[in-house]
Amino acid sequence: MPRVLSLLFLLCLSVNAHADSYITRLLNKPVPGGVAVVNLGASSQAPKASYQGKPVLVIKEQATWLAIVGIPLAVKPGTQQISSAGRNLSFTVGPKQYPEQRITLKNTQQVNPNPANLKRIEGELAEQISAYRTFSPNTPSNVLLDKPVNGPLSSKFGVRRFFNGEERNPHSGLDFAVPAGTPVKTPAAGKVILIGNYFFNGKTVFVDHGQGFISMFCHLSKIDVNVGQPLARGAVVGKVGATGRATGPHMHWNISLNDARVDPAIFIGAFQP
Ligand SMILES: [Zn+2]
């Protein structure tokens, strides 16, 4: 490359690097199941923002307020809007292809549950959706998260899953391959808002990190916390297990923003477009 051109190239790179904030560069992955970081500008008070009628996480970076918007997996690529202080602000959702996974389960109830189990599942779902809709006013301790366990990723977010050949809900979180009994640590400070032993998710803990930013850990062998308990960053919530619909011990972790389940890999710097 001629010297002048390469200098120009470097200049453009550095200009681009300064155009976006640190948090924007790390978290802005506007795809279905991703996150949009929308600049709300400077103001003395925190502005409120909403997306699809639900309140959105707003944090301050230096002098600027940023809306950290969860994009549901079902959103189609194109223009989306949030509203804040009487204005509509747009962002563009790009495409993302999610792979397929085929899983064989011996317990056919976990594929086609009988009416009694369906009733149980319905009740449990309502309880969990209500937890995801929690919106407490506190600001999260950190939005770049620690891994809840140290181990390799075994199944990515968004994978289209076929159980015994039948398509079911896509994978709503991230799996880590770690042995049963491994302590699971909360990746940011928070409060325990729900625990349960669910048909699909097994022993489960929900942690509210603030403003609709919520972690769910499931398939635990043991729960070490109680509802209402405040947690420091890194506190142990339970132990890895294989309860619920699991083919073996692993850690399943969901992240939810404004009641949208999004790819936890974004928050640990492991997102792949
Ligand atoms: Zn999983």
Describe the structure.
Strands 9, 12, 14, 15, 16, 18, 20 and 21 form an 8-stranded antiparallel beta sheet that branches. It is built from 3 helices and 21 strands. Helices cover 15% and strands 37% of the residues. The chain folds into 2 domains: 2-93, Sandwich (Immunoglobulin-like); 100-268, Glucose Permease (Domain IIA), CATH 2.70.70.10. 33% of the residues are buried. Zinc ion is lined by residues 155, 171, 173, 175, 252.
Secondary structure: elements and pairs:
Elements: H1 3-19, H2 22-27, E1 35-41, E2 49-51, E3 54-55, E4 57-61, E5 64-70, E6 78-84, E7 87-93, E8 100-103, H3 115-132, E9 153-155, E10 160-163, E11 166-167, E12 174-176, E13 183-185, E14 190-198, E15 202-210, E16 213-220, E17 222-223, E18 230-231, E19 236-239, E20 251-257, E21 260-262
Parallel strand pairs: 8-10
Antiparallel strand pairs: 1-5, 2-3, 2-6, 4-5, 6-7, 9-12, 10-11, 12-20, 13-19, 14-15, 14-18, 15-16, 16-20, 17-19, 20-21
The chain binds zinc ion.
